[in-house]
């Protein structure tokens, strides 16, 4: 598969169909090395990666359950149980955050977050090129202060998402995408 084909065939795979094997430590180190090639204005290096595998997935599930109960003390037990199981759906998770710095006023937080997003995309493409599948989960868990603190992220830092990686149970079809020209214009000067 050539590089452009890799980019055009990568698709998100729901964690419930990701199984072992997950990348071994050597493969994972290679994937993480691609993350560090993300654009990084000011050489801030905001990315932080927390690898969760094995028994640590149950601890992450318990953290998710605790966070849900803090947000919703009367949450139904079925919802709490689902939070406990969530990390076990894939053999490996990487909790990815941006450690935001204000030391360089020329590099606002949004640029540091975008850099971290680009790092995630590099990992996803490297995993896909190696035969693995990925799924990025964001949402309320990524914005939860209790979960952020558990990973050492401060108040101004961002927990960007939970990246799940594994081998897909079955071959995945490539999700159709719209024509990119639908979102593209040729700018010729200011509007209005």
Structural features, described:
By secondary structure, the protein is α+β, with helices and mostly antiparallel strands. The protein is built from six helices and five strands. Strands 1, 2, 3, 4 and 5 form a five-stranded antiparallel sheet that branches. α3 runs antiparallel to α4 (77-85). It is globular, with a radius of gyration of 18 Å. The N and C termini lie far apart (45 Å).
Annotation field: number of helices:
6
Overall mean pLDDT stands at 94
Radius of gyration: 18 Å
Low-confidence stretches: none
- The separation of the N and C termini measures 45 Å
Q: Could you provide a short overview of the structure?
A:
The protein is built from 6 helices and 5 strands. It has helices at 3-9, 25-35, 56-71, 77-85, 109-129, 145-150, and strands at 18-19, 47-53, 92-98, 133-137, 158-168. Strands 1, 2, 3, 4 and 5 form a 5-stranded antiparallel β-sheet that branches.
Key features of this structure:
192 residues; alpha+beta; globular
Topology (elements, then pairings):
Layout: H1 3-9, E1 18-19, H2 25-35, E2 47-53, H3 56-71, H4 77-85, E3 92-98, H5 109-129, E4 133-137, H6 145-150, E5 158-168
